[in-house]
Amino acid sequence: MSHKAGFVNIVGNPNVGKSTLMNAFVGERLSIITSKAQTTRHRILGIVNGEDFQAVFSDTPGIIKPAYELQSSMMDFVKSALDDADVLIYLVELGEKELKDEAFFNKIKNSKIPVLLLINKIDKGDQELVEAQVKLWQEKVPNAEVFAISALENFGVSQVFTRIIELLPESPPFYDKDALTDKPERFFVNEIIREKILLHYKKEIPYSVEVDTEEFFEDEKIIRIRSVIMVERDTQKGIIIGHKGSAIKRVGVEARADLEKFFGKQIHLDLYVKVNKNWRSDQKQLKRFGYNQK
Hints:
The protein is α/β, with parallel strands linked by helices. 36% of the residues lie in helices and 23% in strands. A hairpin with a 3-residue loop joins strand 7 and strand 8. Helix 6 crosses helix 8. The two termini are 38 Å apart.
């Protein structure tokens, strides 16, 4: 029996639902999801195995014009996703009419690999709007197959998945057949904590935060975790902690609940806050946190 395998890379503007789509394909909550832009900072792989195929899905940061070094590194993840894709998914939101980066859009239009353009969140519009959007994107990206979906409602996702498998090249698997992702456990601890910060803090705070899990000890029934929340300024440290520690306690309680679901074990989570000045513009720090992998 022949075997298919390939990289299926998901790109698009911020907040179009890339992480929701990735999780729908994989059937696991690998990518964190919030309504804030730039929730995804890394390129995260989710691996789906069948008897005769392996689809390696890749969730990337939303396409933006970088304002500082961290954002430049995030855009490097997006560019690398285009380089190694066997199938490219270009995700847009219902009502959207353009990609923020014209040069990147031209690359998609001139791509030699199969492009699936998915119009997401169609549950938020009527049939007339959906049909008009399908026509618009068929004209804008004539090399793409256009699908209308709702990743959140899981509408149209299985049809897209079937088409992806058809398009995969013949190849042996790239990863072990029981692999779910390429990321280590500590990465998901960091992301779940960061998701709670994105949900509960306003303005610049979530974008000034990085999480570093310094200890991860797993026993048969419990995982003991020590994580540090990095901020850029002393004032941000105070905001993260909150009055008598109330804000950080809420982050810890909610993160622990999600971590227990994710790992299927009891979690003991210790959270600390440290000031790491200007880490977003420091090449050395960015490399330490898994950015600037060139």
